[in-house]
Specification:
Rossmann fold, 2 domains, homoserine O-acetyltransferase activity, Rna Polymerase Sigma Factor, Chain: A, 8-stranded mixed sheet, alpha/beta
């Protein structure tokens, strides 16, 4: 009763706190100054002389606004931005339609690729090198493009991918923006960029497109399928989809199915990117791209690519300039490092490609149940290949809506969890400890010699996920599985170890490929 009276008294009492000043919005550009900018609310600085403290400077925001102005000015003077590219490459142009796992159809498609070494007379020495999420086909320098590639020290005479022995092929994945067909490509049906009219695709779709290229090159069977990160997913998918067309498989810092943590991190990146108003639901190609969203997404990604112990040694708690007072913009060395990573990337890769390719990673699951589900979808959608026309469907590409209520465990998911727990308990009682049965069944097609490598300091694809792959393959009956795991005494570079560690990662690949 006393509490109720107190609340009634407070509700009748006027609050003595001073009312804050109303924020002043930046004026939108006029026709004479057509620079597109967000309306940003901020306090007027006209009365700073009467305030207790001066207004803080925000050079990091100034940089974003200046980049927007530069992009707008460049477009006004030179036209649209040039296509994303990393230099000269070869193109395979497929004119036959490609059916994608979730029902989308590409009437025609292009696969950008580069090669190193020489294909032998029997065409039996080819290695297909798969890329990570945002890499191009430029894994190594070429006469046409002398710029160092992303695996420059791993490819060449006497190196892990020995070009004296092997013919190495690397593609830009379907959905990418470095020459292969993706959201920034022109839709032949209407002559416009696909944007978010591009269909959802999967890792398996990328692999099928690559094998169309191999067919065109006359390569019936690969000596090896090699990949790291998302490339490690693709290399395993090759063994599942085309078991008779590959001899060896190498999967580095990858997985056989995406797990919740990595899905969550990629989801966060996509949400940050799509929240940038310049994204415009994917239709930004004739205006300012969502460079701020891309910058922030890359900063989040960079956190997952390296490791805390490395950063402890490399940056510690050092500030960029201890002589200056603390700031809300990048201040600690680690902050400036992340800021630089975002700045460097934000205009180098197509934002829509980041959305589509990262989603394909999330959808990756080589378990038997998912494979059967996708096979049924492909069968039901097969007639689409016979009815490919230039007409644009008016049906929404996705009818999923956000739930009216916050997420709660649904009965079906609870039942599924109960079933999994029951199976795990049954296995435990029977003395069977190992990977999930569904994954074991899904990997039975991979009977090839297989090298799986993981890194203990990797937080994006933790080493237990690579152990899961190796254990599942062995449980499926593959007796030629080699597993190597590198601890923090070997590498503190986390997920990026596959790009940096020539001695251990490169050495393992070299030894495995040399085995008879």
């Amino acid at each position: 009763m006393q509490r109720r009276r107190l609340l009634q008294t407070l509700s009748r009492t006027q609050c003595p706190l001073r009312q804050p000043r109303q924020p002043q919005a930046l004026e939108l550009p006029t026709a004479a100054a057509p620079i597109q900018r967000l309306t940003i609310a901020r306090f007027s600085s006209r009365n700073d002389g009467n305030s207790s403290n001066p207004q803080m400077a925000f050079p990091c925001l100034d940089k974003v606004e200046n980049r927007t102005r530069e992009i707008q000015s460049r477009r006004s003077n030179q036209g649209p931005e040039p296509s994303y590219t990393t230099g000269a490459h070869e193109n395979f142009n497929a004119t036959t339609p490609l059916l994608l796992d979730y029902g989308g159809v590409l009437r025609e498609f292009t696969v950008a690729y580069e090669t190193w070494g020489k294909l032998n007379d029997t065409k039996s020495n080819a290695i297909l090198l798969h890329t990570g999420l945002s890499a191009s086909s430029h894994a190594h320098s070429t006469p046409a493009n002398p710029r160092p590639g992303w695996w420059e020290k791993f490819i060449g005479p006497g190196l892990p991918l020995d070009t004296d022995k092997f013919f190495v092929i690397c593609t830009n994945v379907l959905g990418g923006c470095y020459g292969s067909t993706g959201p920034s490509s022109i839709d032949p049906a209407n002559g416009e960029r696909y944007a978010t009219r591009f269909p959802i695709l999967t890792i398996n779709d990328m692999v099928r497109a690559q094998f169309h290229l191999l067919d065109n090159l006359g390569i019936e069977k690969l000596y090896a399928s090699v990949g790291s990160s998302m490339g490690g997913m693709q290399s395993l998918a090759v063994g599942v989809i085309f078991p008779d067309r590959v001899q060896k498989i190498v999967s580095i810092s990858g997985c056989a199915r995406s797990h919740p943590y990595s899905i969550a991190m990629r989801h966060t990146q996509r949400q940050v990117l799509m929240a940038d108003s310049n994204w415009n639901r994917g239709f930004y190609y004739d205006s300012v791209p969502p460079h701020l969203g891309m910058k922030l997404a890359r900063e989040i990604a960079t956190v997952t690519y390296r490791s805390g112990p490395e950063w402890e040694q490399r940056f510690g708690r050092q500030r960029a300039d201890p002589s200056k007072p603390p700031a809300l913009c990048p201040d600690f060395l680690i902050e400036t490092y992340l800021d630089h990573a975002g700045e460097k990337f934000c205009l180098e890769y197509d934002p829509n490609s980041l959305l589509y390719v990262s989603k394909a990673m999330d959808l990756f699951d080589l378990g038997r149940e998912n494979q059967e589900h996708i096979n049924l979808l492909r069968i039901s959608n097969a007639p689409k290949l016979e009815n490919v026309t230039g007409e644009t469907s008016t049906e929404p590409a996705c009818s999923l809506t956000l739930p009216a209520c916050p997420y709660e465990e649904q009965p079906s998911s609870l039942e599924e969890n109960d079933l999994r727990q029951a199976e795990a308990q049954e296995d435990l009682l029977a003395g069977r400890r190992g990977p999930p049965r569904d994954l074991v069944e899904g990997l039975r097609n991979i009977w090839h010699p297989t090298l799986v490598m993981g890194v203990t300091s990797d937080i994006l694809f933790p080493s237990w996920q690579q152990r899961e792959v190796a254990d599942a393959l062995r449980a499926a009956g593959n007796q030629r599985v080699e597993y190597r795991e590198f601890g923090e005494d070997v590498s503190l570079f986390g997920h990026d170890t596959f790009l940096l560690d020539l001695k251990h990662i490169g050495g393992g690949v070299r030894e495995f490929l040399a085995e008879e």
